[in-house]
Amino acid sequence: MFDMLPNQWTPTVPLIELAGNGPFRIEIAGDAVVAFRGPNGQIATLIDRCPHRSARLSNGTVQPDGLLRCPYHGWRFDDRGDCKQVPLNDLGEEQRQRLCVTRVPSIELAGCLWIYTGLDTDTTPHLPASLDGDPTQFHVATETWQTHWTRAVENFIDFSHLAYVHEKTIGGFMHQGAENDAVVSSRIDATDWGFINTHSFSEGPGFRLDWYRPNRTTLHFGPTDESKLNIFSVPISEELTRVMTCRQLPEGAELSEWQKAHEAAGNPVLGEDRVIVEAQTGAIRTDGSEVSVPTDGPTVAFRRWYREAVLDAA
Ligand code: FES
Ligand SMILES: [Fe+2]
């Protein structure tokens, strides 16, 4: 289960896509979960596969009592995945207990539904202040990229491409220097959630980015600007990644207004990254067949973690 990214908390989709009771199918890390609102109105997440004959539970219906009914033979499951009813069969409680669906831990945070890609956990996602607060007060914009999630993560923790990929937008200040022998020095401070990467650049302002295991980058714009952009690279399958940018709304702002403004403006900077990343092949290489230099410190650190936490674990 979730072999692409086992035993991690990751956001999946924006909460705004989960309006109503569901059920909703969410493809994540090579598997799929079904999300629905149970009897208490909370979102529940189960593996999207009926234990009977593997029908998709997300093609079923949420009953008025909050139970999820399988579309094939009508078995009903509660928000913990326990089987509550098996039509046309007179089964006892004990027999039904063996017919449950696997439950997946989930939580609503920072405008998204997060899941834990494992069976059980006593942890919660580590969130900085910029993602804390009422989960409905965030604007989350999504794009689906044709790439492996590790390529997307690396793009968002890579500083030196700004000078070329973003020469005409946010990297203009670096381009001239890069073409004239400027050198960047980059420093990585490991933290208990990932690392902080700071750069100093002889030709212009420095830059800071934070990487949070497994798939979040926080970009800090300039030393004094408190505005921070959070970017998630969410694995859907080996070939598809959901890139989500997430911002806390200012006090009193209306989510639908933000939505409209964002749709009108789009995100040209992400578009510049996307062209490059979608043309890279497969997942990142951890076999030495891609070479690295000092400005690759952050991606080399990410590769080390990926090899140990994902590849070796699988
Ligand atoms: S496959 Fe779900 S009830 Fe038969
Ligand atoms: Fe970029």
Please give the structural blueprint.
Layout: E1 9-14, E2 24-28, E3 31-37, E4 43-47, E5 61-62, E6 68-69, E7 76-77, E8 83-85, H1 93-96, E9 106-109, E10 112-116, E11 138-145, H2 149-156, H3 162-165, H4 172-179, E12 184-190, E13 194-201, E14 204-212, E15 216-220, E16 228-235, E17 241-248, H5 255-265, H6 268-278, H7 297-311
Antiparallel strand pairs: 1-10, 2-3, 3-4, 5-6, 6-7, 7-8, 9-10, 11-17, 12-13, 13-14, 14-15, 15-16, 16-17
Count the DSSP helices. Answer: 7
Radius of gyration: 22 Å
- Integer count of domains: 2
Span between termini: 10 Å
General shape: elongated
**Uncertain stretches of 5 or more adjacent residues:** none
Query: What is the name of the CATH architecture of the largest domain?
Result: Alpha-Beta Complex
Element string (H = helix, E = strand): EEEEEEEEHEEEHHHEEEEEEHHH
**Biggest sheet: strands, sense, closure?**
7 strands, antiparallel
Widest beta sheet: strand line-up: 11-17-16-15-14-13-12
Strand portion:
25-35%
Question: Which molecules other than protein and nucleic acid are bound?
Answer: FE2/S2 (inorganic) cluster, fe (ii) ion
Structural class: alpha+beta
Q: Strand tally, please?
A: 17
Query: What is the CATH superfamily of the largest domain?
Result: Naphthalene 1,2-dioxygenase Alpha Subunit, Chain A, domain 1
Query: Averaging pLDDT over every residue, what do you get?
Result: 91
How much helical structure, as a percent, in the residues? 10-25%
CATH class of the largest domain: Alpha Beta
CATH fold-level assignment of the largest domain: Naphthalene 1,2-dioxygenase Alpha Subunit, Chain A, domain 1
